[in-house]
Design a protein that fits this description.
With 715 residues, the chain is an all-alpha fold. Helices cover 65% and strands 1% of the residues. The chain contains 36 helices and 2 strands. Strands 1-2 form a two-stranded parallel ribbon. The N terminus and C terminus are likely disordered.
């Protein structure tokens, strides 16, 4: 007689009712209350926390794929493998591996059961299918998958894998594929099936099953969304995609399973999430190892992510290098928007590294691209973002300053002319530096042209109006270069642009022009015009006017002495420049001029003594009256003139030596070094310092005032 399997199990459950030997008795595990189980579990968890410090089983189990990789790298463990492999390494490292609790239930052999149930004429035979449960659950997995119930299918697949599969009877590949297809439907069911799909891919990789390309690419691409971390409604994301890629690549033939589009989408997601370094590694692998040619948009995403953070400019340059290795030509890529974004990131990186040559080279490459009409590629690159526009402006500004410091006015002008073409607005300091560079090289026509261009842009609202000082610089250069027509044109443009005749420096430049011609009356008219404009002439104005009296061939000592009296009457004190110029005006060979010079020398010496005893407040170059080397040269020449006067019988020699000559000897014998050691100079406040800077500029205009045919731009 044969008994069914159910009867055998029933008999086994009733075995405790038979009187058998202790070795054969089937014992149930000891019964415990729910509270005692909970207490034991809490005690176990507490023990884990205490033994393992900060790291707990739950902490490690909650880590995402990238966090697991990072932790493994930090601890010196291998960061390659699936999520389960990485988590297992960490658990093993911290000693947190949990073995499944096994309850040993005594089992009876067939002979023992037959002995227990021995009935004469009755025999037992188990004819049930040993794979019944496995096949039943497997059938449910396939049925749920076929109708698209991916949640039920994944649960059944997990049950099949955990409870019924054995090394001799593994879950078949078809079951994994059926559930995976159910998960992949509708873009991983809105990315909600990302985690089940990841586990299936990892299991297939672990068991050595190859993964179809279409399913693999669909899983990776569908797990990436537009939300934070490339998630979709908080499902899927970068970590899930990276874990899938690791599992797919570890499967048989997995190195060539994923497509260029899948890798590219993952790279862009990483870049948009700020993980430029990870994105760059995958991008390099795509080009160098897999031979892919990613679209320019992928390179642009990585470059933009790196350019957003300072200190990562090198990664932008590496991205450009990889793009060139992929076959892209930098001179052509500006014809598409993605290429312009890539070049813009390169310009931003060049500015961060202060690599002016690289930044200008990238913009030049953009300018050479075709297909950007009606605009130029460089202008589109510069205007692609606020960061790119700022970087382009700073690169041009620094390049112009460097060229001006090197005296390369041609390069400075060329870069300045490129700025408006690229939609960049030069700052006032940029215009001023370039104009000054041209003036220093006596390029009056180029300086005038730049100034007029500047005024035109200011009228269009694209630049600030040039200040009076720039007009003065150009006017002075035109004067030095003998460009009378340009001088008048610049002055007229200043009047029209700024609605003013200029400032005191402008008038002093005009005075210098008349003084060089010896036009004393013209200088007097300028001074009267200054007073009518509400401008009080300063020491430079009077000194320049006196310089007209010292013009060779038209010296006028009496007028020079008169202007000294007039300036004192207006409360303006002469300095050593003024006295030197007035003394030089007396070198006309006449005795009367020598007498005037003697009086001026006495006044200069008295002012110098007063300065030594009372101190000097302000700039020594502007206010000091201490005689310098030129003073002594002029004084000696005046003594020679006096000697010629007594030799010609115009004055008695003894009288000349005891009276007129004494004044000149005081200046010749004056020890300026000794005087400077004892003199007191007061500190300047901020306003006085600015005034001194302007006055120094004005005195530079008087330099070599009386040198004939000497063309030097005093700017």
């Amino acid at each position: 007689m044969r008994l069914s399997n159910a009867l055998v199990l029933a008999l086994s459950g009733l075995a405790d009712g038979f009187q058998t030997s202790p070795s054969l008795a089937l014992r149930s595990p000891p019964q415990t209350s729910a509270s005692s189980v909970k207490t034991a579990t809490l005690a176990e968890e507490t023990e884990l926390v205490t033994l393992n410090g900060d790291a707990t089983y739950e902490d490690i189990n909650a880590l995402a794929f990238r966090a697991l990789q990072k932790q493994c790298k930090t601890l010196g463990l291998s960061a390659k493998g699936t999520t389960a492999a990485l988590r297992g390494r960490l658990l093993e490292h911290f000693g947190l591996m949990r073995d499944a609790t096994k309850v040993e239930v005594p089992t009876a052999t067939a002979a023992e059961i037959e002995e227990l149930c021995a009935v004469e004429g009755v025999t037992f035979c188990d004819e049930s299918d040993p794979d019944f449960d496995f096949k039943s659950v497997l059938a449910e997995v396939m049925q749920k998958s076929s109708v698209g119930h991916w949640k039920s299918a994944t649960r059944k697949l997990k049950t099949l894998s955990k409870k019924y599969s054995t090394p001799d009877r593994p879950v078949p590949r078809e079951a994994y594929l059926a559930v995976l297809e159910a998960c992949v439907a509708n873009r991983l069911n809105g990315a909600r099936a990302s985690e089940p799909a990841r586990r299936i891919l990892e299991d297939m990789s672990t068991f050595g099953f190859d993964i179809p390309e279409d399913l693999a690419n669909s899983c990776v691409a569908s797990s990436l969304g537009d939300g934070p971390g490339a998630t979709h409604d908080n499902c899927g994301g970068i970590d899930a995609a990276l874990a899938m890629v690791a599992a797919i690549e570890a499967a048989p033939g997995g190195e060539s399973t994923l497509s260029e589009a899948s890798y590219g989408k993952l790279v862009s997601a990483l870049a948009n999430d700020g993980a430029a370094d990870e994105a760059l590694l995958i991008l390099r692998s795509m080009v160098a190892e897999k031979g892919f040619t990613p679209p320019l948009g992928t390179f642009a995403d990585v470059a933009k992510a790196a350019a957003k953070s300072r200190g990562r400019a090198e990664e932008v340059l590496q991205t450009l290098t990889i793009a060139k290795a992929a076959g892209y030509v930098l001179d052509n890529i500006a014809s598409v928007e993605a290429g312009r974004e890539l070049l813009a990131s390169g310009v931003v990186a060049a500015e961060q590294m202060d690599n002016l040559a690289l930044g200008l080279r990238l913009l030049t490459a953009a300018a050479e691209a075709e297909g950007c009409a009606p605009d130029n590629g460089d202008a589109l690159v510069a205007s692609s973002s606020s960061a790119a526009q700022r970087a382009c402006t700073l690169i041009h500004k620094r390049a112009i300053f460097a060229a001006c410091n090197d005296g390369n006015w041609k390069l400075a002008v060329k870069i300045l002319e490129l700025m408006p073409q690229r939609g960049l607005t030069p700052a006032t300091s940029v215009w001023r530096n370039v104009v000054s560079a041209c003036c220093k090289k006596e390029k009056s026509r180029k300086a005038t042209a730049l100034l007029l261009d500047w005024v035109t842009l200011a009228d269009q609202g694209k630049a600030e109006k040039p200040p009076v000082s720039v007009f003065n610089t150009v006017v002075n250069t035109c004067e030095v270069c003998g460009e009378e027509e340009l001088t008048v044109r610049v002055l007229d443009k200043m009047r029209d642009t700024l609605d003013t005749e200029g400032n005191i420096i402008t008038f002093n430049i005009a005075l210098k022009r008349l003084a060089k011609a010896g036009n004393v009356l013209g200088c007097e008219g300028i001074l009267i015009g200054m007073l009518s404009e509400g401008l009080e002439p300063n020491v430079v104005s009077y000194t320049t006017t006196i310089g007209a009296c010292a013009k060779e061939g038209s010296k006028n000592p009496a007028m020079a002495g008169m202007w000294l009296k007039r300036m004192r009457a207006r409360g303006v004190q002469p300095n050593y420049h003024t006295y030197n110029t007035a003394l030089a005006a007396c070198l006309d060979g006449k005795l009367q001029s020598t007498f005037i010079a003697s009086q001026i020398a006495d006044e200069m010496y008295a002012d110098a003594e007063r300065e030594v005893s009372c101190g000097l407040e302000g700039s020594a170059n502007f206010k000091s009256t201490l005689p310098d080397l030129y003073t002594k040269v002029v004084a000696r020449n005046l003594m020679k003139q006096l000697r010629e006067n007594w030799r010609s019988g115009d004055i008695d020699m003894d009288v000349a030596k005891t009276s007129t000559r004494v004044s000149f000897l005081k200046l010749v014998d004056f020890d300026k070094k000794n005087a400077l050691d004892t003199a007191i100079e007061c500190e300047l406040d901020e306003d006085e310092a600015i005034e001194v800077a302007d006055q120094d500029y004005e005195f530079s205009l008087l330099k070599e005032l009386h040198s004939d045919d000497h063309r030097t731009a005093m700017v």
